[in-house]
Amino acid sequence: MSVTSFIEPAFLGLIEGLTEFIPVSSTAHLILTGHFLGFTSPGNTFEVLIQLGAILAILSVYAARLYNLILALPSSAKARRFVAGILLAFLPAAIVGALAHDFIKTVLFESPTLISVVLIVGGVILMILDRMKLEPKYTDVMDYPLSLAFIIGLVQCLAMVPGTSRSGATVAGAMLMGADKRSAAEFSFFLAMPTMTGAFAYDLLKNYDKLAIDDVVSIAIGFTVAFIAGVFVVRGLLDFVSRHGFTPFAWWRIVVGSAGLIGLWLFG
Predict the structure, then answer these.
(1) Separation between Cα atoms, residue 124 and residue 176, nearest integer Å
(2) pLDDT attached to residue 211
(3) What pLDDT was estimated at residue 174?
(4) What's the structural domain count of the chain?
(5) When you count CB atoms within 10 A of the terminal residue's CB, does the N or C end of the chain come out lower?
(6) Domain span including residue 204
(7) Average pLDDT of 100-105?
(8) Residue 60's closest CA among 249, 189, 212, 222?
(9) Distance in angstroms (rounded) separating the CA atoms of residues 167 and 184
(10) Are 50 and 219 a contacting pair, CB within 8 Å?
(11) Largest pairwise CA distance in the chain
């Protein structure tokens, strides 16, 4: 592999790690950046498989909490309800993702214009949501009822369209249903674990036979950098959201989406 072959996946891995857990759509950033760099991967697997780094980032930061949660399952009804809620929220995306996998990868992933527009529209929606005077009823993810968890899971399916943002959709859905910003972001972290693991495993199963050794090396580089960047984001995001809300991310979406449209108009 050439030096460029190392730099490009490392750069895309950095983008994945920095954007996966904030409501700006990491997939949109990867697809648009890859488009203008001329970076391609068999079956668009790179964009999905480097999410392994982001998964490991969450697991490393939340390892102690996950361990305590597992220990509490036999004796705590609240812990069992929380785990059931995460699994219930994961179910819609698992079903829709499996049924629509080929359409998502061959049509939606190949539509940079649509992705840019969705980024802008999502930014406007996020800005409006951030300015709404919502009265939160839930401030602790452990208190989320199963009905709320399932609705968040349904909303997460909107993120099948690149540019929507999985974290943005789940946070918005949670807030509209009565969750505060911090707990909504935290629930999105927990929900990311089965969702992203499932997407990784399913995509690998579907495309492992298409991967050459260079593809595997690129993916390894990408997910390693994504892991390092993701750890910093996960550690700092909840406090940032509590202080600043989601408006900075809304403006970022609008800027990136607009830049994408301009770039496509100028360069194709």
Answers:
(1) 16
(2) 82
(3) 95
(4) 1
(5) C
(6) 3-267
(7) 88
(8) 189
(9) 9
(10) yes
(11) 61
